[in-house]
Amino acid sequence: MKIVVCIKQVPDTNEVKLDPKTNRLIRDGVPSIINHDDKAGIEAALQLKERVGGTVTVVCMGPPQADVALREALAMGCDDAYLLSAREFGGSDTCATAIIISSALKKIGYDIVFTGRQAIDGDTAQVGPQIAENLGIPQVSYTEELIDVTDETITVKRQYEDRYHIIEAPLPCLLTAIQELAEPRYMHAGGIIDAYAKDITVWGFEDLKDVINPDHIGLMGSPTKVVTSFGKMPKGAGTKLEVTPEEAVEAIIAKMEERHII
Amino acid sequence: MSKDIYVVAEQRDGNIAKVTMELLGEATKLAGELGEKVYAVLMGDQIKDKAQDLIEHGADGVVVVEDPMLAEYVTEPYAKALTAVIKNYDPNIVLFGATSIGRDLAPRVAARVHTGLTADCTRLDVDMNEYFDFLHATSNADTDAIANRLGMDDKNLKMTRPAFGGNVMATIRCADHRPQMATVRPGVMKKLDAVAGKEGTVEEFKVEFTAADMNVKIKEVVRETKKAVDITEAKVLVSGGRGIGSPEFFDELQKVADLLGGEISSSRANVDAGWIARDRQVGQTGKTVRPDLYMACGISGAIQHIAGMESSECVIAINKNDTAAIFEVADLGIVGDVKVIIPKLQEALAKYMEENA
Ligand SMILES: Cc1cc2nc3c(=O)[nH]c(=O)nc-3n(C[C@H](O)[C@H](O)[C@H](O)COP(=O)(O)OP(=O)(O)OC[C@H]3O[C@@H](n4cnc5c(N)ncnc54)[C@H](O)[C@@H]3O)c2cc1C
Ligand SMILES: Cc1cc2nc3c(=O)[nH]c(=O)nc-3n(C[C@H](O)[C@H](O)[C@H](O)COP(=O)(O)OP(=O)(O)OC[C@H]3O[C@@H](n4cnc5c(N)ncnc54)[C@H](O)[C@@H]3O)c2cc1C
Q1: Residue A155 at interface with chain B, using a CB cutoff of 8 Å
Q2: B52 within domain boundaries
Q3: Is position B221 within any domain?
Q4: Which pLDDT score, from 0 to 100, does residue A233 have?
Q5: Per-residue pLDDT tens over the stretch B206-262
Q6: Is the Cβ pair B163, A230 closer than 8 Å?
Q7: Helices (H), A20-76
Q8: Which ligand is nearest to the Cα of residue B164, counting in written order?
């Protein structure tokens, strides 16, 4: 079985700050990691391979430095890795990103594709379903558990707010992983050495141009455009009181009256 | 030419989701600014009788697609139906709730019709002046530069959304493709009061399904028996953070909530600690709430928490640390010990209720 996992290298968003003057993200010194959901996807893929055999391929679109994320995936036990990196890809929105990744997947081949449900930086949760649409294969998002797999089908638990579905999807199909899907294993020392011995295939625009419409990728080819980005300003503090508990209670009741709560 | 705003109605077991009504409220406002109309797209099996409810909440009309295949949500039949509706009616704007259904369906359809999609929006603008008022109030964005680029008569949808875990807000436009599509976070927009007996058009739209459209098999549907409470519906939330010290203290908060006709809610810290059910969690990975009153008791005000409660009409915070971030979003901040203040508040409120009964 050929299993492909799409992984995104993301900044650890807990540490991302916005420069208050320029409104640009300060990324210096912020560690880059494999997106959490994608790591769950890698783990699920590796477990699937252990069950039914096959290979696990990881694919990442990003700058040359994203190579680190792919090495980490190899060290976890993935078999081969592709980095999609080109100036032409820069500035892509989710629509364009999905076009680029799905073009690469058409060349790489797949029986099951995993993406994360959502990347912690862009936070859209759109790329997985968009890839599935471009490939013309069924998707199951919010995959919480792999239940069964045969040569022709995979059965999974799909989460909703108020229910879950047990869904059997024919292969090939795309699953978007949530963190609950699998607890990622650690890289082992041997794996790390092996990971650096392996080659990462780097594909640029030239390698994909026979399957990509150049008008549909990059900043220019993206239907959505960012008008502006800005840090969130606090809603504006009201009064802050350091008073006795009795006075505090009085102030609270007065506020509730003023706002017609009581 | 593309026109009108289409709200994709979300239903489960025939019940319309609250976010759908919120979207109809927002769409009504935007449609007024555009001089366009609001339509709801209602997909399901034998669902037509729900159309009137959508009309009473703001829709000028409802496009109904009925088929047994649409009884339970499955991506492909819904994507096929909605794509057909979009191709036929050529909307200017299509809005979805940013739910586990909306966020599955919207990107699939956006890719199929090749248009842009903005995720999980918390604000929508058409009018540039209103958009700038918002930017001035909440950011230091350079509005002159934006005015130069877009022009003040820009009528494209300005879709504003949080990214990077709530650390960054971005406004997105989709100027060259139609429809403009967005998913909108539940709990953020305001629904209109229903106008009983309001009139609107109900149009049945036929989609030819084949067996192949059901391209996955649902083997089981398991409804999870959630407690009846929905904190997003509560007018008053008394919310406890790690600072309440023990799970038992939620009982004290509950008494205050009962006096105010409200519910208790929580920060993630206490949910992770197992002190309270996850469906009471407020925040980025919990629920977005906008009650008339949000009382934050012993909550520090982490950005992920604030993301879920900052649109509350009124925030009262009690925290013993006078530099706690929660004070920055509080209308009234009390520096003090919740364990002392809450019991006293209970007493005082009980007395107040008795006197004013
Ligand atoms: C502030 C801001 C707001 C934005 N808002 C929008 C918006 O509303 N709509 C829009 O279309 N674009 C938007 N973008 C652009 C968007 O972030 C990028 O297109 C990004 O490359 C993909 O989106 P995401 O990070 O949301 O990924 P998601 O769709 O959340 O990612 C889901 C999964 O897809 C896979 N995946 C995603 N990217 C890659 C990759 N580069 N390589 C390999 N696998 C990948 C991963 O498995 C990931 O877990 C925004 C960008 C910024 C900076
Ligand atoms: C990806 C991600 C998503 C997250 N999503 C959410 C989310 O959805 N919702 C959420 O809430 N959090 C979320 N978090 C966690 C968030 O970052 C904080 O850790 C969490 O909100 C802290 O909860 P807290 O305020 O209850 O606890 P703490 O931060 O520990 O604060 C306790 C507060 O109580 C005060 N205190 C202590 N004793 C007393 C007393 N006796 N009287 C008065 N005050 C007292 C302290 O001064 C302190 O301010 C998320 C984090 C991540 C990384």
Answers
A1: yes
A2: yes
A3: no
A4: 57
A5: 999 999 999 999 999 999 865 457 898 888 999 999 999 999 999 999 999 999 999
A6: no
A7: 36-52, 67-76
A8: 1
In a shared domain, residues B202 and B233 = no
CA–CA dist B53, B58 (Å, integer): 9
The DSSP result for A165-187, as a single string, is EEEEEESSEEEEEPGGG--PPPP
Looking at the structure, tell me whether residues B14 and B163 fall in a common domain. yes
Say yes or no: CB of residue B276 within 6 Å of ligand 2.
no
Whether B115 lines ligand 2, by a CB cut-off of 6 Å, is no
Residue in chain B nearest A161 by alpha carbon: B100
A189 or B128: which leads in pLDDT: B128
Cβ–ligand 2 distance for B266 under 6 Å, the answer no
Q: The domain containing residue B238 runs over which residues?
A: 226-355
Q: Is residue B201 domain-shared with residue B246, that is, in the same domain? A: no
Mean pLDDT of A54-79: 96
pTM score of the predicted model: 0.82
φ/ψ region of A112 (left if φ > 0, alpha if ψ in -120 to 50, else beta) reads beta
User: Could you identify the atom of ligand 1 that is nearest to the CA of residue B168?
Assistant: 1
- How are beta strands A112-116 and A173-177 bridged, if at all? parallel
Phi first, then psi: give them for residue B58, nearest 5 degrees: 130, -15
Q: Which of A262, A157, A28, A236 is nearest to B222 (CA)?
A: A157
Give residue A238's pLDDT.
Answer: 82
HSE (side-chain half, CA atoms, 13 Å) at A158: 25
Are residues B240 and B305 both part of a single domain? Answer: yes
Residue B12: strand pairing partners? B15
The pLDDT-based confidence of A162 (bands split at 50, 70, 90) is: confident
CATH code of residue A104: 3.40.50.620
Which residues of chain B have a CB within 8 Å of the CB of A231? 139, 167-169
Q: Is the CB of A66 under 6 A from ligand 1?
A: no
Domain count, chain B: 2
Domain that holds residue A119: 2-221
**Residue A18 domain flag:** yes
B219 falls within a domain: no
Lookup result for tokens 């030239």: A206
pLDDT in tens, B137-180: 888 889 999 999 999 999 999 999 988 877 789 999 999 999 99
Residue with tokens 């699920």: A44
The answer to whether residues B61 and B111 belong to one domain is yes
Pair B24, B78 in one domain: yes
Which residue reads 């001089």 in tokens? B35
| Within-domain flag for B218 | no
Q: What part of A 223-252 touches B (C-beta under 8 Å)?
A: 223-243, 245-246, 248-252
Other C-beta atoms lying within 10 Å of the C-beta of residue B304: 17
Q: Name which of A118, A126, A146, A157 to mutate to probe chain B: the one with the most chain B Cβ atoms within 10 A of its Cβ.
A: A126
CATH number of the domain bearing residue B189 = 3.40.50.620
User: For the domain that residue B245 is a member of, what is the CATH number?
Assistant: 3.40.50.1220
Domain count, chain A: 1
Q: Which tens digits make up the pLDDT trace of A202-261?
A: 999 999 999 999 999 999 999 999 999 987 655 566 889 999 999 999 999 999 988 888
